[in-house]
Design brief:
Order of helices and strands: HEHHEHEHEEHEHEHHEEEEEHEE
CATH superfamily of the largest domain: Vaccinia Virus protein VP39
CATH architecture of the largest domain: 3-Layer(aba) Sandwich
CATH topology of the largest domain: Rossmann fold
Largest sheet: 8 strands, mixed
Number of strands: 14
Distance between the termini: 39 Å
Number of domains: 2
Number of helices: 10
Oligomer: single chain
Helix content: 40-55%
């Protein structure tokens, strides 16, 4: 069933002009490993900035939550590296909470469960695999314990402004008055700093993006020659859009067995694979208001490259 959905999305994306593929398919087992490497790159400031925020502001975040009993949910939990800062502090403060990480990748959730059991054995963990809104909808009818939702890592930047507003409005509809959202945004800054973060000299980001073609070869029977495609990155300081592309280096045909179809790529034709939108602080606050939230407090790193913003359902 998963491969059927993958195949359908690939068919839809490659049938468009310009062509595009969903970045959610980056995250197979190899993609997960490559993304962990990306987060440790010196150019990839996002991880360090948010880590700094959580370390420096964990007390302020706990005080701003304003309650000792809650359910802590995380959308796209990943390996939980940064989240563990909050989990450990909340436990030290005697908070009564259950951690419910939500992720589309079962592989990631299993690894997170193992590491949490080893590092924080006293933590109550209930991993939930699947679509965010489906899971949240199922949880909504449970007990009236307030929810604190984490959406860290600037993941909201993978959506266009219109998509982000729809996503967050849908999230707001699955929450109750008084529920909270701690959401991370990468802020606009020197364009060179942003571009270097997605175009590292070691080529890890390029390998991460091209792994999508390797996954299509393995799971869908595609015939992509990775040597004939190149990763390309752009940043537009006006719109705040960082965009990743996979570019065909020559005129070529690729057959995808799962679709029983061949696709023709012209030389230098690009496939859009990822958007990472950067925000100004005023855009963050406007997005909160348009999505049905109230901004409670902003938490910044020292350079103000990044913000974790705490929002509330009124």
């Amino acid at each position: 069933m998963a491969n059927n959905l993958f195949a359908q999305d690939v068919l839809q994306g490659l049938s468009q002009k310009p062509r595009k593929l969903s970045s959610k398919y980056f995250y197979d087992a190899e993609g997960d490993k490559l993304f962990q490497q990306i987060m440790r790159m010196p150019e990839y400031y996002l991880t360090d900035c948010e880590q700094e925020i959580l370390e420096a502001s964990k007390e302020g975040i706990f005080q701003a939550i304003g309650r000792r009993q809650f359910k802590l949910l995380e959308l796209g939990a990943g390996d939980g590296l940064k989240t563990k800062v909050l989990l450990r502090y909340f436990l030290e403060q005697g908070a009564d909470f259950q951690f419910q990480p939500i992720d589309i990748s079962r592989n990631v959730l299993l690894e997170l469960e193992e590491s949490l059991q080893a590092e924080l054995p006293e933590l109550s963990v209930d991993s939930l695999q699947g679509d965010y809104f489906k899971v949240l909808h199922e949880l909504r009818s449970e007990s009236g314990i307030p929810k604190v939702v984490l959406f860290l890592g600037a993941n909201i930047g993978n959506y266009t402004p219109q998509e982000a507003q729809r996503f967050l409005r849908s999230l707001a509809e699955e929450l109750n008055p008084g529920d909270l959202l701690l959401i991370g945004f990468d802020l606009k800054k020197d364009p060179a700093i942003i571009l270097n973060a997605y175009n590292d000299s070691a080529g890890i980001t390029a390998a991460f993006n091209l792994n999508l073609l390797r996954r299509m070869n393995r799971e869908l029977g595609a015939t992509f020659d990775l040597q004939q495609f190149r990763h390309w990155e752009t940043y537009n300081p006006l719109s705040g859009e960082t965009k990743s592309y996979i570019v065909s280096l020559r005129d070529q045909h690729v057959f995808i067995r799962a679709l029983n179809r061949s696709f023709h790529f012209e030389a230098w034709e690009a496939i859009g694979v990822e958007l990472s939108l950067k925000y100004s602080l005023s855009e963050v606050e406007s997005l909160a208001s348009k999505s049905g939230f109230e901004v409670q407090q902003h938490f910044f790193d020292q350079k103000r490259y990044f913000v974790d913003s705490l929002w509330r359902i009124p």
